[in-house]
Every structure is written in structure tokens, then in C-alpha cells.
């Protein structure tokens, strides 16, 4: 039941909230977003449509939000961000526990384009009560390297070529190191080799297929010699949306059972 939150105090839990690329509405799938829960804190990676709705109904404790990492500001990765922030405020107004969790906290928003952030702030300021809330928002434009460190998690960013090569870069891939474990999220990339420096000894790779064939990704990984514990396809393009079973068979022929295709609400333990 919503509100009856899961206890994930010591485990790292990855929940896929939206598995679709930037398509028109698809049955059972929303645009891209996932969370990592660790040591009582919640971390968001991209915030596509409905991400807070799906998270709340999956009993994720939204007031534990510590940081939000936006890979780039295309709608299928950021469309749910204003609603996520609005939902946090709403929860703080209807639940005393949520209010206590959020009071005087500073939620960090890592975003590669502060002009877009300014637009989101303007949008929120036009909602109920001028969006006054018990928590603060701290937005930061990031670049390559270590961008977040705390609570046993380090998050590294690396620019990719999804939006071209001009600086400042506006599209990134991420690597989260959680204790001795690691998750790499491709974001949207021109080619999987964009994330190559992030892939050493990777326990879980969340790789987009909105712009790529699954066979090309699998063959590149084999050739690279990188150790990938699990490969989860996310941000699905037309091939997976049309025939997920067929695409999974193709991928498993190359990489075996370590491959899975994400669905909305899928929970992965790390
Ligand atoms: Zn996308």
C-alpha cells in the first residue's frame, strides 16, 4: 500500500520507474527514470513522466530523497521533475512523518542546464502557496568527474555525445559507486563507447536502446573485454517495444542470462 514504505536500510535497491524512450504514450511504460535506495536515503536518476507517481505506488519513501541526477534535459528524462518536487511538498503537507523527514533539508538537483532549471522553478512558483515548502532545493550544473559524495555513495559523471561535442556539455552518463558495488547508467549516448571509461568492473549496466540495436551493444561489450555483472536494457526503442522477447533472445545469444529487459516497477537488488 502507498505510505507503507519498504525497509531498505542496508540493501542497495534499484527500482526502474520508467523504461521507455521518448515515444508517444505506450501502454504500461513511462519515460525514463530509476531510483537507488541506500542506507535510508533515496537517489533519483532522471525524472521522466510519472516517476513520482510510480515510485509512491511502489512504496518508495519519497521524503528520503537526497539527490536527483538529470542526465540531460530532454522531456523523456525531465518531464516528471516538477511533479516529483511538487509531490514532495504535497507529502510534507499531508503527512507529519514526511514533514519531519523533509524539514530543513536541502535536496540536491544535478542538472546540466540551469536555464531549464530556472523554468522549472518558475513553474513551481506558480503552484499552490508559491511553492513554499519545509525543504530547500539546491541546483547545481555539473561537469565530468565526482559530482556527489556522501552516505556511502559516490556518483561520477562523464559527458557523452548525445547532444554533440560543444562545451559546456549538456548530456552525461553516470557511474554510482555504492560501497564496493557499482551501477553505470548510460543516459542517452551516440554510441556505447561514450561510457567506456565508466565501465571498468561494473556490477550493473543500465543501457539505453532508444538509439541502438541490442546486438550492437552486446557485441561491443564482448569485444571490449569489460566485466559487466548484469546488463539491463532501459529507455527502450521501437525494436524492444515491438517485440521484447525477440530482442532478449538476440541479446542472450551473445551475453547469456546476465541480460534483462527493464519493465516499469522492476526491482533489482545490488
Ligand atoms: Zn531519451
What would you say this structure looks like, in words?
This protein has 270 residues and is of the alpha/beta class. The chain has one domain: 4-Layer Sandwich (Metallo-beta-lactamase, Chain A). It contains eight helices and 14 strands. It has a seven-stranded mixed β-sheet. It has a seven-stranded mixed β-sheet with strand order 7-8-9-10-11-12-13. Helix 6 packs parallel to helix 8. It is globular, with a radius of gyration of 18 Å. It starts with 12 loop residues before the first strand and ends with a strand. The model has no long low-confidence stretch (mean pLDDT 94). Bound molecules: zinc ion. The site of zinc ion has 8 residues, from helix 2.
Q: Looking at the chains present, what oligomeric state does this protein adopt? A: single chain
Proportion of strand residues: 25-35%
| N to C succession of SSEs | EEEHEHHHEHEEEEEEHEHHEE
Largest sheet: 7 strands, mixed
Q: And the CATH topology? A: Metallo-beta-lactamase, Chain A
CATH class: Alpha Beta
Helix content: 25-40%
Overall structural domain count: 1
Number of helices: 8
Strand order, biggest sheet? Answer: 6-5-4-3-2-1-14
Number of strands: 14
- Rg result: 18 Å
* Small-molecule components bound: zinc ion
Query: For this structure, what is the CATH homologous superfamily?
Result: Ribonuclease Z/Hydroxyacylglutathione hydrolase-like
Structural class: alpha/beta
Shape: globular
CATH architecture: 4-Layer Sandwich
What's the mean pLDDT score? Answer: 94
Low-confidence runs of at least 5 consecutive residues: none
